[in-house]
């Protein structure tokens, strides 16, 4: 019944270890079918190399498991909040990729130092505040999602333009128009974090990329005047 | 006679080079059968790609070789001390993995900076003191085990909860309920050491993860209220 | 009609992900046929593993697409400027390889610290100035090429001897007598950037290699007294 | 005629790219037959994946090519000096491996920070002085060998115990009782350089390993009381 959705989700999950973004079960991908109002997500704690499409768990937008024999990822409620708050996103990825985690543990947004970064987003990669104790004691995974959404609102960030975030002390979440694009952003984020780390070592006074170059590179690839890639 | 035990041990040893944790013969795994009171351990100085299950050496809990034609790992007495002192552990790993060795050589415990760490243990990764000269001159490998056990007692650490340690100036030992889990901890330790290294470079003032987040993440995966993974 | 040229270009493009120099579509190679006055270049935004030789786009030295069904790389005008300004080069590579981007983002030329560097060029790896706003607003990719050419003229660098450059805030361009050699320089550049990065960490006061050693190593491999490699 | 010697040399050369120690032609291995007074060495500038055993060049201890159709490695005279000065060594390796080059470019010996290092040598990894201009102008590769030999004599180092060296501003040479062991030392050296680099970042005040631990680890593996590995 949810065969195609499960296959997309399963395939996107398998990309994570191939791209060097996760070891063991350190990550998960979900993929949503907006028409039916359900998403498929990795089951909790199951190894990537033993997982089959049928193991993907189908969850509706109220958080109910509607199909599947396994428990969904323990992060399912974070995915749920993001799908409800960001209506255009089609897939979500959570990893513990090394350099993204290091920036999250350092409690720092990633400064936009170059065009590789500006090709994908036109500002720093945001980092949420550390979660307050009462929220941790509450429904932790839901609050993780809330914190991301509140950060975007507080900083007036557009989740259709900035498709990645660091959760302070924890690690990255990324999303995109579909699960495949969300995985793409997870890989790009890890690489941007590594480049920014090296840039600061090589020149502790390296400035952010200037606005005109950010604007140029971002608009080459995004928006109505984009000219990167092939015409559809 | 010890066919299954040897196979478990051999298989776990082969994981070390595959996971990038050892080059050449820089590591060893042992696996214990508590009912029979014997453990299997890698033979000393034998290449991973030439090793067969039959080459694993069977040792009893007094340190006697009870079966096998080769010499056991030169670290056998360290394994012996740990099996005798920590009654619930089923497997032990020693490696010289790069980032774990770097912290051990830096003579520093690894601060708990994030949730990746807290998913596995609820405090810093301990580092023993440097061994005193008279102990080095004595039975060195036994004393290495003693030093680990004494460190855990002095700091009131529970070896069923903290399943990894750095031996100062030397490198890591990890353990677990079986050899496979001990290898898992060896890989996780290396990754935690790498993340902590990067975190301190990106923000030299990065704080330890706060207690409420440590508690939340550790208890998600461990203890009676754990909800990560599948029901058994 | 342009079968051989397309094959050379295609093959050289495929080397980039194999050598770890690009992820996704983060790079491009072109290859010129000087006799016919045309070059083949990677199509824009097409994945390396889906690309076939026929997809390479043929462009003349006025920048007109003369054959091919896809749009050329968005960087085509940078390649065009370089082919017109540097008459002996036969291939050009652009990547976003990690360490080269880090130096470009740090806005620093790469100091010549050792013989690995001197085996390939006899001075620092140049880094252009950041582009002025009015040039960015103009034809950006053409201006990127202009900026490289002007940097070489201002610093009196010979593009037949220094076959690599960092574009400030962006990343590397390399070239060579053919596309294969340009790819070779892209890989060597990434490695030189990584070595220089590490050198400065290990010794912040490390001096540039002395002139006599630079001269010795460069002339071992280049010019009429070269004695490295086989006689042709 | 030199079939076995060529095969050993060829096989050892092929290990270098497999172990991640060289890219392209950035390294060479030689293997000596002491009874016949000749050694086999990699030909200059030939790619590892195109090389066949017959391409190895046979050179005598006066530096004459006695068999082979290709030019020997441009570093042949460095190998020659080392074979003549160090009578017990059976193989020599030169690479430009990343971390070893970084220490050589930083002009620093590698401090002995831990037991991984002490398992292989009982002191710092030496680094030669920078070569004087008049020696560079002379027979450069011979002088590179001379400089290594003089460094060992000046510091009273035993080449049978310390089987690796950094040539200042250049990179590493390693050796061993045969070519296979020399390659082993090249890999170990790269790893020790990486560990020492990380150790100094994690703790800039990290002390050298204390003498009793150095002595213990070195003598576990070397000399008449060694007990590591299997009895022969």
Account of the 3D structure:
Four copies of one chain form a homotetramer. Chain A is of the alpha+beta class. Chain A contains eight helices and seven strands, in the order αββββαβααααββαα. Chain A has helices spanning 3-18, 76-85, 98-105, 115-118, 133-137, 140-154, 179-202, 211-221; strands at 27-33, 38-41, 57-60, 65-67, 91-95, 164-167, 171-176. In chain A, strands 4-3-2-1-5-7-6 form a seven-stranded antiparallel β-sheet, sandwiched between helices. In chain A, α1 runs parallel beside α7, α2 (76-85) runs parallel beside α6 and α3 (98-105) crosses α7 (179-202). The longest helix of chain A has 24 residues, at 179-202. Chain A is globular, with a radius of gyration of 17 Å. The mean pLDDT of chain A is 97. Chain A binds chain C through residues 113-116, 184, 187-188, 191, 194-196, 198-199, 201-203, 206-207, 209-210, 212-213, 216, 220, 227-231, and chain C through 23-24, 26, 43-46, 70-71, 74, 96, 98-99, 101-108, 130-131, 133, 136-137, 140, 169-171, 197, 200-201.
């Amino acid at each position: 019944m949810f065969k195609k959705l499960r296959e997309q989700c399963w395939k996107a999950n398998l990309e994570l270890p191939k791209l060097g973004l996760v070891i063991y079960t350190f990550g998960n991908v979900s993929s949503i079918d907006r028409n039916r109002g359900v998403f498929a997500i990795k089951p909790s704690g199951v190894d990537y190399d033993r997982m089959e499409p049928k193991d993907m768990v189908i969850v509706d937008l109220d958080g109910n498991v509607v199909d599947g024999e396994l428990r969904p990822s323990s992060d399912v409620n974070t995915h749920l909040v993001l799908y409800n708050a960001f209506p255009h996103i089609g897939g979500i990825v959570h990893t513990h990729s090394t350099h993204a985690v290091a920036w999250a543990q350092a409690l720092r947004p990633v400064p936009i130092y170059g065009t590789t970064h500006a090709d994908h987003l036109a500002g720093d990669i945001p980092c949420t505040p550390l979660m307050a104790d009462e929220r941790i004691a509450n429904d932790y995974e839901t609050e993780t999602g809330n914190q991301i959404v509140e950060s975007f609102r507080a900083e007036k960030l557009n989740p259709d333009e900035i498709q990645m975030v660091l959760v302070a002390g924890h690690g990255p979440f990324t999303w995109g128009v579909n699960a495949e694009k969300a995985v793409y952003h997870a890989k790009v984020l890890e690489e941007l974090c590594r480049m920014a780390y090296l840039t600061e070592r090589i020149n502790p006074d390296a400035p952010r990329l200037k606005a005109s170059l950010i604007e140029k590179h971002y608009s080459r690839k995004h928006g109505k005047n984009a000219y990167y890639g092939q015409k559809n």
